[in-house]
Fold each of these.
Amino acid sequence: MIARFWPMFRKEFIQMRRDRLTLGIMIGMPVAQLLLFGFAIQTEVRNLPTVVVDESRTPESRALIAAFENTGNFRVVAHVDDRPALDRAIRHLGRFRGRPGAHARDRESRGGRGGGGGSPGRGPGAAAL
């Protein structure tokens, strides 16, 4: 099997030397993908809305929460007291995920009334608990 591989490999390289388009595609496409995926696509997560359950409420736990916020990756939008409140807040935030301006549109459709909107001063999509 290996004995037949090398002659075929050599034949394909000879063919690529004759056909410049194939050689250009074989070299150009990976370079284009590298540039596209390496520079154009940003995978860094910033300002992720976060709901915090701090049951201990100690200075150490507050320092840990502050450390998370200071990274710039997390944005604490609500502090809740128990697990059911956490589940409600996550469901509430999930309604607005991926829909820019959805919070304002939903509030306007209700005639400016609250009822599921964000908390003042915390930005759109923040849980109102």
Amino acid sequence: MEKIDSGEKIEMTLMEVERAYTSSPITSAVFGAYVLYIAHNTPNMTELKDILAANSVSPFLSRVATGTLGFACGDVVMVERNEQALEHFRRRGQEWRVKPLAWTGREMSAALAASRKRISTDIRYYHGSRGVHYPGIYTRAVANDFAKGTLDAEVMDYVSGGTKVKLDERLDLLLSLFHSEVSDRIDKTATGYVNAGGLRATGVEVSSHWRPTDDLAFFGGGTWTNPETHPVSRLPRWTFTAGGTWAICDWLKWTLDGQYIGSMNAYSVRAEADRANLRKLDDAFVFNTRLAVPLASFLPVKGEWYVSVENFTNQHYCYYPGYPMAGAMIWTGVKLTF
């Protein structure tokens, strides 16, 4: 049981006023509207009682304020709202004695903070899939002569599971485990496609997103893969990526990201002498940056104009031996959204 003190702000509903003070809908409506208006413009109960008692418009209001109806506003006892209280006072026709569903801003903030502690923000997921890749006409046409009879449908089974944890309103963390198995894997060599056999690999992936402010966001992640069949082409053991975006102002956004590609093996697509042999490739760091101007800042259209520089450190790297990727490149363009 809780009694409304003189320093507290009173909040009532029209239904409570009607049940508490009168059975007449007309006087109830007048009284309810008046009390609600005064209550939201009066700092405490004592001042509210003085205003009602001094009011000469309706003797009814004065009688209520001074307690001539049996109790004064300051003596109203309110109980916490729960199922037991509702049932108890509902049987007595005194449901108005239960705290109403009308909260102040402070009460709503406190209730929201308490509810967040009870709500789980963890997301758990499990995923499984099977993919079948049939060698098409082009694949068979450019296949190595000795491999044409061995090319078959490439079948990949993949399973993964993990959890995403929301550490707070601006930071989350994702952790997942995965396993893949591939049979009759089709791979590319200098003289055409070949059946590279089977593949089994297990790995772990970790990623995170952090938004310290409304204008700044970061991301990062890493993957470790353990191939159970050795060696395997184009499957680095370690990869990492990280970056951030800064909304400098309403009309300019800057993005910077980087990627680490660990050492891996691959078939050559240049040297015919290496057509059936795997060669080891060096690891590499690649960095990119981008400036974008939202078109909505100047025009009534959705989209952006951007300028990006890829591999701005001019890193030399490749995914196939003898086939190097491009160095530093500058791009510009317009992207529209409809």
Amino acid sequence: MNGGRRGQVSAAKRQGPERQHATRRHVRAAASLAILALLTLGALGSGTEFSQSAAAVLSPEKAVLALTVTIANFAYAPDPIIISVGTTVTWTNTDTTRHSATADDGSFDTDLLPTGESGSVTFNMARTFPYTCDIHPYMTGTVIVR
């Protein structure tokens, strides 16, 4: 005997052609969504920094402990940044003049950074830190620590 399988018909054959086609569409849709989810997670966790149009966001599952903010054309990029507690942010000045990243409340200050120089701060408290450049007060940025 073949273990009670005699006379069994596969579920796909019992369902008919329309049902089989609908089932295949659902499987393809689920596979497409799974691939999209994996690609999205890969993009978020593939490096130490990335930017979006509004913010740099770190995935909590793949906490990155370092992030670089570039100072160029009298602006900070990316801005704002959202990071985890314990992350070190490095501001690198690629502009043609000196700049700083100084917290509005005085909790951190990179000092003035000449072209090509960097300054780093490690954030050990969850809160929002607005900051400006000491000599260009119209240059503003925000660090959001979660």
